[in-house]
Amino acid sequence: MVDTQRGATDRDMRPSTLRVLHIEDQERDVVLITRHLSRAGYEIVSDRVDTPATMRTALETGEWDVILCDYSMPHFNALQALALMKEIKRDIPFIIISGTIGETAAVEAMRAGAHDYLMKDSLARLAPAIERERNEAENRRARRQAEEQLRLQSAAVQAAANAIVITNRDGKILWVNPAFSQTTGYSFNEVLGKNPRLLKSGKQDRAFYQNMWETILAGEVWHNTVINRRKDGTLNREDLTITPISDDAGAITHFIGIKQDITQLAQALSDLQTKSEELSAMTQQLWQASKLATMGELAASVAHELNNPLATIALRTELLADQLSGNAGQRDSAQIILNEVERMASLVDNLLQFSRRSHRQISTIDAAEEISNSVNFIAYYLRNRNVLVQSDYGADVPPIQADRQQLRQLFLNLLTNAADAMPDGGTLTTRTAETKVGEAKGALIEFIDSGIGILPENLDRIWDSFFTTKAEGKGTGLGLAICRRIVEEHGGMIEIESEVGHGTTVRVSIPAAANGNSTHDYE
What we know:
Elements: H1 2-13, E1 17-23, H2 27-39, E2 43-49, H3 52-61, E3 66-69, H4 78-87, E4 94-98, H5 103-112, E5 116-119, H6 126-159, E6 163-168, E7 173-176, H7 178-184, H8 188-191, H9 206-217, E8 222-229, E9 235-246, E10 252-261, H10 263-323, H11 328-354, E11 360-365, H12 367-377, H13 379-384, E12 387-393, E13 400-403, H14 404-420, E14 426-437, E15 440-449, H15 456-459, H16 479-489, E16 493-498, E17 504-511, E18 520-522
Parallel strand pairs: 1-2, 1-3, 3-4, 4-5, 12-14
Antiparallel strand pairs: 6-7, 6-10, 8-9, 9-10, 11-13, 11-18, 14-15, 15-17, 16-17
Helix pairs in contact: 3-4, 10-11, 12-14, 14-16
């Protein structure tokens, strides 16, 4: 009773369909086996073949759960069938069922690859043998799949572009992939059993590594950028991820480090940042040039519009002053008007200089002499502000080629700016020396005042047109913009150093005259 129920349960657990390929020359034997398996609970789907050709076709076109093969047939036998199955690489449970097979032949068949053999007159264990071999076949397929997966994973790790290192819990290296050797210069045998600290560059401090160990020993993934040292001593920057591996009990047993060499990437990003900064500077220069060009056109238009009315006012005022020769008070008022007109005319001249519309005449000039003339020209202005002028002119300073009018305007602007920066008086030193402008000789001209200095936030703006640090009504903001324009048009350079409370130094470098005295005009 119990055995019957257990048998029924076993049959209920079996698949309802069994696909059987019979290699048999006797149809009656197939019918007998089919009847036996049907009583065991199977729904049979089968085919019978008895030649190599028909067996090959059956294997290539169908899926079979088991092959039941007679040992010997007139034109075919079990050993040939086993060889054919191996040839086309099919793994199907192969059971020999024969009425005449002897012990020696059975052993030979098992060695050739048969999984079991039964006698035709004793089929009681056929169903259990089929189930056993089907389970074994499934296990073999699972093992092959697992092995193939491991093979693919191993190949992927071996071929990975990123360096991979596996260590035990103490950090001893157990395995590295070829990319690790390519990145570090160390072979597998050179690092086996070593600690990854052999790659340390000294660029990371103790706290860096302490944080790394605290993170991975807590079972967490650690990721950071690290600078390591290759075997040849060169440094490389790496993106490093360390992952802890735990056993079934949760204890950490190994660490896997995956490293990507980002040295070239970091350099490329640095180069890109440099290019970006250069582009930003060029954009700023283009914007500044465009702004100056626009303001230059506006300044030229305004200057030309003011010239004629100013000339008319000056002429009429002079006539009026002559007519008022007998009235001192009114004549003084007329003179005040004339002074203001002259100031306006000077502003107009500045505007024309700014817009590059003035006429220039180049000649060979002694810079020290022209500075002295400019100092003398505004001596009264300097005395009224208690400014003491000192000079230090070098003996071998070469003459320069410049427009005398523009050079005088440059010097007068710088002298008056220096005086205005010393409202309580002070010392103004003018100095000349030989220098180089590019590869050519030149004259270095310095104006050094002991004034109030320039605020750091204003140093970058002092060259902007119409920007001034003077009180409202005391300056146009064109002086330094015109100075830079004049210097640059003469192929020179101008720079300013200043510190609040410690004065300002303006340095002007202008190329020396090439061939003695020369004079020519240009627009």
